[in-house]
Amino acid sequence: MNAAARLAAFAVGLAFIFATAAFAGSRIDVHPGRQSATPADEPAMGEMNADTTMTPQAVRGLAVSDNGLTLRLARAAATPGKPFQLAFRIVDRRGATVRDFDVEHTKRMHFIVVRRDMTGFQHLHPTQSPDGSWSVPVTLRDAGSYRVFADFSVDGKPHTLADDLAADGTVRSHPLPAPVAGVDVDGLHVRLTEGASRAGAESRLAFDVTRDGKPVAVERYLGAKGHLVALREGDLAFLHVHPDESSLRFMAAFPTAGRYRLFLQFKTAGHVHTAAFTQEVSR
């Protein structure tokens, strides 16, 4: 083969190699140098990373709609102190009622009611009707603006949607209580033994329960020894805190500095108790 023929063959070979490489590259990643993220690659909310730091939990409950789902309340007002049935639906982008929900903490729907000043906390479990709607008995004890949260999971993805309810009348707001180490509830003393420190850092929240100075055994409630809801002062951002199933200890990563209200629920002798704490989180 003469020199011209060898050069022509070499050029054809190079063109084939580049074409093959370009085709393969287009099948692997259309953005070379940038890894594509999949749900399996992303750390779950509050999950530990390889460097043992904790990913700050994404705040939820700031909007009535999120990720294609919307909370639709059947009413927006109520009379203070008068019980009523609150009906609602979860609908998709087309307005169709969502009917299938995952079981989380032994329930398919958790419904939180709290006044804007973070008093009057209620944790309720609605009943679903055959048409997919939900209903739950509610009493708004005092006049004021209330925030309601529908906390649920669909196809393995958690959602917290929120809207407002108004209870007409003269409003007497209460300032957020200062942080304290312990509170008394139903003849029990609940003490916060470990609390949050810095925003974005892994925090362990630990509690113990005593009566007359003696430890009290707590029963399982919602699949664990206790349940904890944290709400941020101001916007009432909702944080779902993960429990240790064997004790009143919870792992959390608070996303921002500020004050949070912690609502701890636990069960003794078949009765559910609620203890509330104010937690300061620094930068």
Summarize the structure in words.
This protein is mainly β and 283 residues long. 9% of the residues lie in helices and 40% in strands. The protein has one helix at 3-28; strands spanning 65-66, 69-73, 77-78, 84-91, 110-115, 122-124, 127-128, 134-138, 144-154, 157-167, 182-185, 188-194, 203-211, 214-215, 227-232, 238-240, 242-243, 249-252, 258-268, 271-281. 24% of the residues are buried.
Keywords:
single chain, 283 residues, mainly beta, six-stranded antiparallel sheet, 1 helix, 20 strands, 40% strand, disordered N terminus
**Topology as a string of helices (H) and strands (E):** HEEEEEEEEEEEEEEEEEEEE
Mean pLDDT: 83
Structural class: mainly beta
**Structural Rg:** 26 Å
Weakly predicted, low-confidence segments: 2-54
In helices, the fraction of residues equals under 10%
Report the total helices: 1
Sketch the major β-sheet: 6 strands, antiparallel
Shape: globular
Q: How many β-strand stretches?
A: 20
Strand content: 35-45%
Distance between the termini: 75 Å
